[in-house]
Amino acid sequence: MKTRLLSIVLLCCVSLVKAQPIELQVNVKETVAPIQPTMYGIFFEDINFGADGGLYAELVKNRSFEFDYPLLGWEPFGQIEILTENPCFDKNPHYVQLVKTEQNRTGTGLVNEGFFGMGFKKGENYRFSVYARNLSEKPVKMAVDLIGNDRELTAYSSIEINSKEWKQYEIVLSPNRTDEKGRLRVLLLDNGIVDLDHISLFPEKTWKGRKNGLRNDLAQALADLNPGVFRFPGGCIVEGTTLENRYNWKNSVGPVENRPININRWNYSQAIRRFPDYYQSYGMGFYELFLLSEDIGAEPLPVVSCGLACQFENPYADPQAMVPIKQLDSYIQDALDLIEFANGDTTTQWGKLRAEMGHPAPFNMKYLGVGNEQWGEIYVERLAEFLKVLRKEHPEIKIIGSSGPFKDGEYFDYLWPEMKRLQVDLVDEHYYNPPSFFYDNAKRYDSYDRQGPKVFAGEYAAHHHTRKNNFDSALSEAAFMTGLERNADVVYMATYAPLFAHIEGWQWKPDLIWFDNMKSVKTPNYYVQQLYGQNAGTHTLKLTHNGQPLTGEQKMYATAAFDQETNEVILKIVNASINNRSIKVNMEGGNPSGEVKITMLQSDMLEAENTLTSPETIIPEERTITIQGNTPEFHVPKQSFQVFRIKLQ
Q: In terms of Cα–Cα distance, which of 54, 78, 51, 52 is closest to 63?
């Protein structure tokens, strides 16, 4: 009996200890550092069919017959030939010739499979267009059909090709049913000879309703993050496996029909996830990416080649994979011309092109990355050449250099001092590590040099051993990001990576947003990014527990910010433990109005995830409470990330 009573007493004591709130001191009287508007942003690379087949709303694959195998993606029938004589577009010279005669009873035409099929929604409109010429004596009628996965018609129409010169034709189709795996078919109805090029099909309902536009749900998901910066177009594709297939921004602007395609390095670089039909149409090029930046209110941050192909794919200092220092002029000129395209007056060559494309006003680009994950002396000496020219010609542009592909080690330790010596404005750090790294490194930037270049956490993600976007990975990122915000005087930008992944076409995971042809799902990691992006605040506040930042004690993490625009204190609290806790916040110099808005992301299962079939397994929950006094106490459930917005009087 005595043993049992002692056990009960001990349990009561333990319960009392657990019930004791964790006390936080928040100095509201004095802000510590400004939080840059660019602090939380997004990074886009065309990986996992993120552009063609993803964010770029074009439904036709290989629309200009320019893949290495020109009919890849097409199912031809009848008399078909690929030609290049007297083309419609000089940079995309291939086109297809269709011939139908009396003897050809089965017909002549093409079926395009799209990107893992084409998603059609009942009642919505789809704009078909084609460049065509008729080599026959009489006009030739051509059927244009949308067909389902069962090969039955869901929409049909026809156009009459009546010109012997290249001419664009356009019609609108509206399917009579929804189909996730549809196809496009064109076939000649009359005897004759017809040439076709740039066969295109877009939903009319694109982001902002634009032609050559973006997939609406995916673009809206980006806008909902409230990003402050938008880095593009990569990533490894900036470098290319070879210099010839690096991303060349000049090929991505001008008339969309005459932008030459480029093979995507993710076509072949992942041996277990090869996609021989993965190319870059450049339909969503630099103009469209700048426009998206503007639409979502993010600062554009383009990255240009420094004259080095991917160093992972090539032997170090391989002369075939690098531009000699004395031959860098054209690469540096590409950077200068890009600044002119983004910011130049309409009387300049590239500013004029921007205006002709529909945007006379400048995009006000302020940042430029030179190189991606390059390392070693060969990178530093090339970056130095860029800096000489860019500092002289455009001192207003902030230049971002690289710390290499890893969070630490030989490359990292060499590059940081060199970046300081070269006086770059920001250094791009990348880390893909287990959740334990992110939990353990909430104070990574506490000891960084306050006088050196600022940090851009340009690519990061917690890689759970399952490589899934589960709650454990998201919660660890939330914990880590308290350290980004607390060190806002050092960290100016941070972007999760990669951004998109097609459920049937991925090469890399985890990824922030997953999608198929019809639907998309926001991962728990997405909601962590969103909660930070929508609740950044304007300045950091000093938050301590027992005189120190809360960076993992009892598996708790915290940061505080002040929003001058709304007069609110914003607390971000992570409880990574398996115990429910409470916190008492002593707001020194603050006078709460009584209203607190709380947004929480929580799951009892660390391996839980959102899927296309269960997209709301883990989503933010919002509530508003009323408090009294300036030492409020809040409940913090186990395995949760919460944002508290405390209104001041």
A: 52
Scanning the structure block, which residue is given the tokens 């319960």? 15
Of the candidates 643, 637, 546, the one whose C-alpha atom is nearest the C-alpha of residue 599 is: 643
H or E element, residue 584:
strand 581-588
Half-sphere exposure of 597 (CA within 13 A, CB side): 11
Place of tokens 């998109």: 500
Give the pLDDT confidence score for residue 612 in this predicted structure: 96
- Cβ atoms of 229 and 369 within 8 Å: the answer is no
Torsion (CA) 326, 330, 336, 340 in degrees, nearest 10: 160
What is the sign, positive or negative, of the torsion defined by CA atoms of 634, 637, 639, 641? negative
Q: What would the DSSP string read from start to end of 44-64?
A: --S-TT-TBTTTB----SSTT
To the question of pTM greater than 0.85 for the whole model, the response is: yes
What DSSP line would sit under 313-353, residue for residue? Answer: TS-TT-GGGB--GGG-HHHHHHHHHHHHHHH--TTSHHHHH
> Of 58, 257, 340, 373, which one is the catalytic site residue?
373
For the CA atoms of 249, 251, 256, 258, the dihedral, rounded to the nearest 10 degrees, stands at 180
Structure tokens at 211: 């032609």
The DSSP bridge partners found for residue 195 are 97, 133
- Joined together, the tokens standing for residue 544 give 């301590």
Please enumerate, as own/partner, the contacts of 489-492 that have beta carbons within 8 Å and a separation of 24 or more: 489/32, 489/33, 489/34, 489/450, 489/540, 490/445, 490/448, 490/449, 490/450, 490/454, 490/455, 491/39, 491/445, 491/454, 491/455, 491/456, 491/457, 492/36, 492/38, 492/39, 492/426, 492/454, 492/455, 492/456
CA distance 128 to 130: 7
Question: Residue 4 pLDDT more than 80?
Answer: no
Residue 6 pLDDT more than 70? no
Alpha helix (H) residue ranges in 104-214: none
**Is 418 one of the annotated active-site residues of the chain?**
no
